[in-house]
């Protein structure tokens, strides 16, 4: 094996030794909502779940239409006490964004339900974002 091949082999070995532990480990600075570099890498491989929940009164049906830049998740009519949910993995190069349109009676709202932000990750307990529609508004459940 010539010296060039040996150098390339050594370089690839060093890269694999340094990258694999970064991807496999995860840590969060306590109570700051900021992610370190290891956590950012591990979030690329994380499966996230988004839940939209109908918690309206008087048997009101909630219309939900969610999408991302790449996927239209369809229109769903939720009866009280039911939910529409989906799972996904963030885009490796960033920019993952999901938004929903929700409506009932003559009220409606369109808003982001997932975006890449450490404070959102913390509120979603690093895996599950619960958006709950109630008579007085739509809330993100802050999971402790």
From TrEMBL:
Entry keyword annotation includes Secreted: yes
InterPro entries, from UniProt?
A: Self-incomp_S1
Q: Name one GO cellular component term.
A: extracellular region
Q: What span is annotated as the signal peptide, if there is one?
A: 1-25
**Which terms does the UniProt entry file under GO BP?**
rejection of self pollen
Where does the record say this protein resides?
Secreted
What domain of life?
Eukaryota
Q: Which keywords fit this entry according to its UniProt record?
A: Secreted, Self-incompatibility, Signal
The answer to keyword Secreted applying to this record is: yes
Q: Give the family this protein belongs to, as stated in its UniProt record.
A: Belongs to the plant self-incompatibility (S1) protein family.
Query: Can you name this protein?
Result: S-protein homolog
Organism per entry? Gossypium lobatum
């Amino acid at each position: 094996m010539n010296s060039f091949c040996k150098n390339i082999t050594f370089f690839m070995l060093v890269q694999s030794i340094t990258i694999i532990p970064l991807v496999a480990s995860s840590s969060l600075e306590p109570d700051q909502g900021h992610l370190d570099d290891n956590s950012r890498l591990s979030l690329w491989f994380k499966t996230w779940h988004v839940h939209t929940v109908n918690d309206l009164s008087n048997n009101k049906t909630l219309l939900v239409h969610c999408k991302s830049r790449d996927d239209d998740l369809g229109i769903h009519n939720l009866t009280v006490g039911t939910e529409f949910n989906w799972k996904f993995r963030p885009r490796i190069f960033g920019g993952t964004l999901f938004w929903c349109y929700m409506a009932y009676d003559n009220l409606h709202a369109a808003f982001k339900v997932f975006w890449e932000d450490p404070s959102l990750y913390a509120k979603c307990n690093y895996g599950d974002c619960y958006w709950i529609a109630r008579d007085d508004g739509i809330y993100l459940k802050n999971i402790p």
